[in-house]
Amino acid sequence: MEGWLTASGEVFAAVQGWLFEHLLEPGLHLAGLDNWLELGFDGVEFVLVGLIEVLLLLLVLRPLEAWRPAERWSDRRGVGVDVAYTLLHRLGVVPLLFFLILQPLADLLDATLRLHGYVPFTLESVLPGLVDRPVLTFMAYLLLLDFAGYWQHRFQHRLEWWWALHALHHSQRRMSLWCDDRNHLIDDALGAAWFALLALLIGVPPGQFLALALCTRVLQSLAHANLRCSFGRWGNCLIVSPYFHRVHHGIGIGHQGDTQGCNFAVLFPVWDLIFGTLRLDVPLQPTGIDDQLRGRDYGAGFWDQQRLGMQRLFAALPWSDARKRA
Fold first, then answer.
1. Which has fewest Cβ within 10 Å: 9, 48, 130, 305?
2. φ, ψ for residue 70 (rounded to 5)?
């Protein structure tokens, strides 16, 4: 197994080097962007990893959806835009945009913190037992980031202005493996800043941050799949399953009650269990938002969805005319 992994890594590195040397590097030289070479090399890696992800989705999850769907549709209208969201995110377009916007802010914050004597700690310095145990360290970082992801998700439902953006994600009536990246770009930027800030404060190594993001994305694609699949009574309390997350997206459940929804966990349902937002007592049901049943439009195409999300955001802000009239 170790030999196979080593050989696969060598093939991946060779493909990455060839693509960079023969395609990207000449273009950057021609455009006078030599200072982007290092970023470009890392970008090729990101795109290749994303391409492998998309292929796995097609080869593994898509056949499972066809074999055992949670619900059968008469057509697949509306799924195509989610495929576009997935390609934009997994193949690097949206992450590159966020990098250009957020990286200068992250660098400024890092420099300011260090200027005032703050040096990000590492888990190994706090928990010496993790030294030279990369797998345990990875799992500890994953647990910390997942805890932050749970509370980010709670805020997305609790804060009216943030829900105005996040509602786009919940508006898909044909929930499938492509839905994970169906988000408003501002919502995405807020989420990226949330995790980047936490990773900066706790000292997550860059290489591990990429692996943590990759692990989260793969499991989230599974969680969103149109798949009649539960991990059992105890399994659903250990890791988010398609059943667990479909309950979260259910009409009349996903944004209702004192907690403004349920099953907020990104990967580990233990947070819902601890904070009282766990629901494992409901059958599978249609997904979406209840106001869609009353005719509210969330947009059919990418730009319509982004535009309507902005309109909802402005209407939800405290100083908006719409709130004053209400």
1. 9
2. -70, -35
